[in-house]
Structure formats: C-alpha cells, structure tokens
Design a protein that fits this description.
alpha+beta, Gyrase A, domain 2, Alpha-Beta Plaits, Elongation Factor Tu (Ef-tu), domain 3, 3 domains, six-stranded mixed beta sheet
Length: 363
C-alpha cells in the first residue's frame, strides 16, 4: 500500500486509514457521522492525494487527447475542463477522467491505481506526436473541500484565489511561499465543492489552513466513509465500484462524458452504433430498496423481474437524509424503465425494490 504524503499529518488528527486500489486513504477521523453531516451542512476537507494525476505536455497534446477520449478536448479553453472516458476499440471502459486545460498542459485526474493502465494506453497511440505523459502525483497533492459553505471557507484562506464559477472550470495563483496552486470547481457529492491541486512541499500547510477554515464554518476534516455515503446518495457512479473494464461506456458513464458531435476517437464507432441502432443490453439505474432490509445488499446481489434475473447491485446506502435505502445497479433493458418493480435477492431473503430517477429524492 502506497502511503499518503500527509500520513503523519492525518495521524496527528486521529485518522483511521483504509486502502483503495492499493493506495492509503483516510477512512475517517473518529466520527464519520459528523464528517458526513459536515459534507451536507457546512464543509468537509478531504485529502484526495491517493487519486491518480498525470499531465500531457507537448505541441500536439490537445489534438492527440481529443482523438483518445469520448468528450470534446479541442473545445476546451485554458481554465476549463470536461468529464470524459477512455475506452478500448470495442467501446469498453478503461477509466473515467476529469480533464483540465492548463496554460501549457492538460491535467487528467482519475481513480487511484490506474496511472499505469491509463499512461500505457495513451502511450500506445503516440507515434510521431509531440506529446509527453508525466505522472505528477508525487509533485502535486490533491485536497478537496465539499459542502454548502466550502466557497466561504476558501475565501477566508486569504490566498486571493478567484472562485471558478462553473463546474470543471479552474483558476490558479502563484504564491511566493506556497507555489502554484490550482482551484477547480468540482462538486463530488452533488452539491457544492472544490478541488485544490497543491505543490507537495506546501500540502501540509494548505491542508492545515483549509481545515481551520472549514471549522470556522462549522465543518471539519472528512474521510472516505462520509464521502462514499454522500456520493451514493447523490447517485454518482464511481469507476471501480459501479463501472469497470467490463462495461460499455453508454451502459455506465454519465451522458455528459460522451460527445456525439466530435470527430473520431478510439472506440467511437461502437459507441455511435449503439446510439444509432438501439439501447445497450443493460444500463446503470437508481434503485429504491425495501425499508425492511436490515443489512444493505452486497455488490453483485441479484435483481429479478417476473422470476428472471435481470441485474445486480453495485453500491448501496442507508440514508437518513433520503429517509430510505437506495442503491446503484445494472438492469437489463426489458426491465429498466423508471418505476419498474424488481425483486432483490440477498443472503437475508427477497425484498422489493423499484427503479427511480437520478438524483435520488427523499422517500
């Protein structure tokens, strides 16, 4: 397991650690319920430095990446970004990506443990292109502040950071003491939120300031348990949990990740054919689960319709905010319309469930 750069810093805050895809992650700081509440009511600061980060440099970087991913990279101006997927020639997912256009490079932020896979996939198609792929995870850490008071907390830092107004846009400053810091508008739980990319030597100082600012707003530091709970409540799929390399992109990825008007890219023919000739065989759906469930379903627990197996669960949450049990899962096209009644089969028995729209709403 690869340790966080700020392991000792978090240890001093009584962090309990866990592992995600071979990377050390702060699970919680002793009170995940309060951390979850901070995400929804004030602001919670998370160390996301376990995530993968690479940069593409070189004169051909924009044209090259545009031909590799599902979304429109050529349309990005400096200071803007997009959500996209990297897929195989057969349209199967290899990773989802947050792509940001910096002044002289493209920054890719994606799930932990995938740097080798993504880098090798891109390098495979660099032939005579002026493109360099650089792993920047060691040089830059990644902090995040999420919650309705996160903007107020950032403004109180005194760093003269301009707040980027739209999701997946960014601003930056070059601080004489802290170095070049990037601020991205990136809601990770369906509400308000921002990521900060910070030079590693300054990461501890910025994390300390950010947590103090969150506390002034009634918030706290937060960990993986609270973040995952809030993510599932928001109906947001995560690569590695709700989608993986077995999935076709249109089955799983959010619609905003795919441009159907851009030119050719690896996997484009398959994805365009699916759109032209019909639905995918299965698709990711939101599920309202039976209140009688005493234990949440495990990943892979089966869903049935009229006695026939039609799908399975990927993530589930028992939500006091939504007043019920909810899940993400795949359901075959013959049974995946909104309102369809399904039977969930777990180790405890059979329970009713039905398909609901994203984002989830209180029961």
């Amino acid at each position: 397991m690869e340790a966080l750069a700020l392991h000792e810093f978090h240890h001093g805050l009584n962090a309990v650690f866990t592992e995600v895809s071979g990377m050390e992650v702060v699970d919680h700081y002793g009170d995940p319920v309060s951390e979850y509440r901070a995400l929804h009511e004030s602001a919670a600061v998370l160390d996301l430095s376990f995530r993968s980060r690479i940069c593409l440099t070189g004169a051909d970087r924009v044209r090259f990446l545009h031909g590799q991913v599902t979304n429109n990279v050529q349309g990005l101006r400096t200071g803007t970004g997009c959500y996209a997927a990297l897929v195989t020639a057969k349209g199967k997912l290899q990773s989802d990506l947050n792509i940001y256009a910096l002044k002289d490079e493209l920054l890719l932020d994606f799930e932990p443990g995938l740097t080798k896979v993504v880098s090798e996939r891109l390098e495979k198609y660099i032939i005579a292109d002026d493109v360099q792929i650089i792993d920047v995870a060691a040089a830059y850490g990644q902090l995040s502040i999420q919650g309705p008071k996160s903007e107020a907390a950032i403004r109180s830092l005194g760093l003269d950071l301009e707040i980027p107004a739209q999701p997946l846009t960014l601003t930056s400053i070059n601080n004489p003491n802290l170095g070049e810091i990037y601020l991205m508008n990136h809601p990770r739980t369906g509400g308000v939120g921002f990521d900060l990319f910070v030079p590693t030597p300054a990461l501890g100082a910025v994390a300390d300031k950010l947590i103090a600012a969150a506390k002034q707003q009634g918030g706290s530091a937060g960990g993986w348990t609270a973040l995952e709970r809030a993510r599932i409540e928001a109906g947001l799929p995560r690569f590695g949990a709700d989608m993986d390399e077995t999935n076709l992109a249109p089955e799983a990825i959010e619609a905003r990740a795919i441009s159907y008007s851009k030119g050719c890219y690896i996997g484009q023919e398959v994805i365009a054919r699916i759109r032209t000739y019909g639905q995918v065989a299965k698709a990711l759906r939101g599920l309202r689960l039976d209140d009688k469930l005493k234990t949440l379903p495990a990943k892979g627990d089966k869903l049935f319709h009229d006695g026939k197996e039609v799908g399975y669960i990927t993530s589930a949450v028992s939500s006091s905010k939504l007043n019920g049990n909810f899940a993400l899962g795949y359901v075959r096209k013959e049974a995946n319309q909104i309102g369809s009644e399904l039977i969930l089969r777990t180790g405890e028995g059979e329970f009713s469930s039905h398909i609901v729209e994203f984002p989830f709403k209180p029961a």
